[in-house]
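Support request, priority: normal
Reporter: lab tech (M.K.)
Component: structure prediction queue

Hi team, I submitted a job for Signal transduction histidine kinase internal region domain-containing protein from Pseudochryseolinea flava yesterday, and the status page still shows it as pending. I've pasted the exact input below so you can check whether something in the sequence is tripping the parser. The sequence length should be 377 residues. Please let me know if I need to resubmit or if it's stuck on your end.
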Amino acid sequence: MQNFIGLKFIEDIPRIWKRAYLLLCIWYAAKYAVGTFLEWKLELRDPYIFWNALYMFEALCLLIIAIFFYSNWLFRFSVYFQVAGHVAGAMTHFFIMGTLSYIVEDHVVGYSGWEFWKAHIISLLKWEGLHFHDQYIITIGVYYVIRYFLGLQKEETEKSELNLKNREMQLSLLKSQINPHFLFNTLNSINTLIGSSKEQARKVITQLSDIFRYALDSHGDQMVKLIQELDFIDNYIRIQQVRFGDRLKFIKQVDFSCLNVPIPPMILQPLVENSVKYGIAPKDDGGTIVLTVKRFNNMIFFEVKDDGLGSNAQKVIDGSSSGVGMKNTDQRLRSIFGPGSSLRIRSNEWGYSVSFFIPFEEEGQTSSEETLKSQAV
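Reply from support: The job had stalled in the queue. We restarted it manually and it finished. Here are the results:
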């Protein structure tokens, strides 16, 4: 059980710290190997110095781990406390490594006792023992460099997450403004029709139920298939046709290859409603709304146009009294697909048109020239 806990603890250590520890050990192994070989070649031709170097290297590898944990503990305190702590840590490291060098160099050959240890430590305070301080300084230097870059990475990650959350909140806000506007106008339409025919009222209630279900299921601005959006538009138009009768005609011109294209939910409804309310409804003889969806290579073209009042309409910029319908649709498209997908609005005395493009690419799917034309609801 203890072995399992130990292995799990090691696995939980981030890979960057494992690599840093391994590189430090390799670096000091190379230094000890070269230094010991030169000492053996130039000064002492005795194999015991290789064993001494091995013992010192093993101790240093263990102390590097301790220094990492010690630095991590100090990091939670102020800079001044960290500086003081590392000064004490460097001194402790020096005494540990100095004592170990005394044991492997002097004590084992009979120079044991306080005076010999003291003399050995004092001798290390000169140039010979500076490498013990270097070991500590280099190790904490590696620690702080890693912490610095990890901090930058964490900051970038938090910034990206914050931007994503802000974007999601913005999209949710825009959509929450669109939905009440749509439902309010739909209920007004039903209110004028409920008393005319029970059968028609039953159909309208069923269609309204489907509309509510679609609107309520569309959370977080997740994508839906175009065919689902078209069913939603059909229900909306059927409710409006109960009110306007033959004065309102609706035609879909949709490439079959586009039916499974993912689009934001309720992205077409404000465009259609704008045409109904400000293009067709005020016109005495009504008119026709044409919804076109075509594919051009890796782009999907959407257009809602009508032959209503056009530029003669009292209001052609937006389909809601609060001015959020078309504006928010444009913002949603920009936020999801980029500025190239913004709404393009054209208006003249013969009608009104709103169009936009969205990018789309799917392997194995080719554009179809076959179009669903003149399908009246």
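The domain at 158-376 is CATH 3.30.565.10 (Heat Shock Protein 90). Residues 316-323, 364-376 have pLDDT under 50 and may be disordered. Let us know if anything else looks off. Ticket resolved.
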